[in-house]
């Protein structure tokens, strides 16, 4: 028999409990956001599953809005959302074609970065995902799917030599036994996110871990309109004797938002090397006494990794600037609205 409370199974922890005031303990119920649609969200809690409407007025800023994995407080009687609880972790990216962030998921504990052994494998993309994972402070594992289709796995092990702290598991995602080592990442009360491109086997992996067909698989193209089975939106799936698994459509674009710390942590080896360069402002190109170039020559650092670090640093710097600017302009716009409103009110009071 399973004696764990439903809330605990959904990942309820002291970190969330201690955010509730006495009044809130009485008048509210915490619920977990399982899926987000346009204005409606699906939540799960002590009273089971329900849909709630989320008004824009409660969560003005895009980064404040509830995302998959968030904990919300609902008023016990009206079932209306009262507020969102502080997050223990957050995954975000730049919204494609916009000057704001788009939230991917909150309160995630572990992440499987999923890639397939064949055409998809790309170490620079893995590092991009890793920056997100490090920023969120989650535990990560790299899963290489379709190991059953390709006999030669040596190139992957070679490529990953520079990432000793990242565990790698090769699997046949269709096979329950093969994915068993990954169960350690989705224990009861934990939330596991599956991140990776479309078609790599995320939904297949979810189904094998769950031991049942929870998500439709086989979608190679997300915009395939011929009714192909495919993952269309992000959602959390509770699995029997385990925690929650986040399945999401592959993200074609994963532009890094203002995540300096995550990036720094992903490339900590290069930062450490650069402290040994002769010049403090060394750009690691052709300066004498450059420890980074020396490491490349000695075969200890992959030149690709240096290039990717530079590229991602530029991207984070650019996007941080864009976000800071759009926040500043939002602020001045709302100040303007407020002063116009105050002015109108003052005029009205005078008449
Ligand atoms: N042979 C084999 N096929 C796989 C494996 N993982 C996924 N597939 C197949 O790859 C296709 C895409 O898988 P899917 O789970 O929908 O990918 P997603 O887009 O990442 O969710 C499906 O036809 C799966 O059956 C694997 O490890 N081995
Ligand atoms: Mg899928
Ligand atoms: Zn240098």
Automatic annotation (TrEMBL):
It is found in: Cytoplasm. It is an enzyme of class 3 (hydrolase). SUPFAM superfamilies: P-loop containing nucleoside triphosphate hydrolases. Monomer. Associates with 30S ribosomal subunit, binds 16S rRNA. One of its GO terms (molecular function) is GTPase activity. This is Small ribosomal subunit biogenesis GTPase RsgA. GO terms for biological process: ribosomal small subunit biogenesis. Its EC number is 3.6.1.-. Its main location: cytoplasm. InterPro entries: G_CP_dom, P-loop_NTPase, Ribosome_biogen_GTPase_RsgA, RsgA_GTPase_dom. Keywords: Cytoplasm, GTP-binding, Hydrolase, Metal-binding, Nucleotide-binding, Ribosome biogenesis, RNA-binding, rRNA-binding, Zinc.
């Amino acid at each position: 028999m399973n004696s764990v409370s439903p809330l605990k199974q959904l990942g309820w922890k002291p970190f969330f409990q201690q955010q509730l005031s006495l009044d809130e303990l009485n008048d509210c119920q915490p619920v977990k956001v399982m899926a987000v649609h346009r204005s409606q969200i699906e939540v799960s809690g002590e009273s089971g599953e329900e849909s709630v409407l989320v008004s824009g007025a409660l969560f003005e800023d895009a980064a404040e809005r509830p995302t998959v994995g968030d904990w919300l407080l609902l008023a016990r009687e009206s079932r209306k959302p009262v507020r969102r609880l502080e997050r223990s972790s957050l995954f975000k990216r730049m919204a494609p074609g916009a000057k704001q962030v788009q939230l991917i998921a909150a309160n995630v504990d572990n992440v499987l970065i999923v890639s397939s052994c064949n055409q998809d494998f790309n170490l620079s993309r893995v590092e991009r995902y890793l920056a997100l994972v490090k920023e969120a402070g989650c535990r990560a594992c790299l899963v290489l799917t379709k190991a059953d289709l390709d006999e030669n796995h040596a190139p992957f092990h070679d490529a990953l030599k520079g990432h000793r702290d990242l565990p790698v598991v090769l699997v046949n995602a269709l096979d329950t036994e093969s994915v068993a080592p990954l169960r350690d990442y989705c224990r009861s009360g934990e939330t596991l996110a599956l991140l990776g491109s479309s078609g790599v086997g995320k939904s297949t992996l979810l189904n094998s871990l769950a031991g049942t067909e929870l998500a439709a698989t086989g979608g190679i193209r997300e915009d395939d309109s011929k009714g192909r089975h495919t993952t269309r939106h992000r959602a959390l799936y509770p699995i029997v004797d385990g925690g929650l698994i986040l399945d999401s459509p592959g993200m074609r674009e994963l532009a890094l938002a203002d995540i300096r710390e995550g990036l720094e942590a992903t490339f900590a080896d290069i930062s450490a090397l650069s402290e040994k360069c002769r010049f403090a402002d060394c750009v690691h190109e052709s300066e004498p006494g450059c420890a980074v170039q020396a490491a490349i020559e000695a075969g200890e650092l992959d030149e690709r990794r240096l290039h990717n670090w530079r590229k991602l640093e530029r991207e984070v710097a650019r996007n941080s600037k864009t976000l800071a600017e759009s926040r500043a302009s939002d602020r001045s716009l709302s100040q303007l609205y407020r002063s116009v409103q105050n002015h109108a009110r003052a005029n009205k009071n005078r008449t």
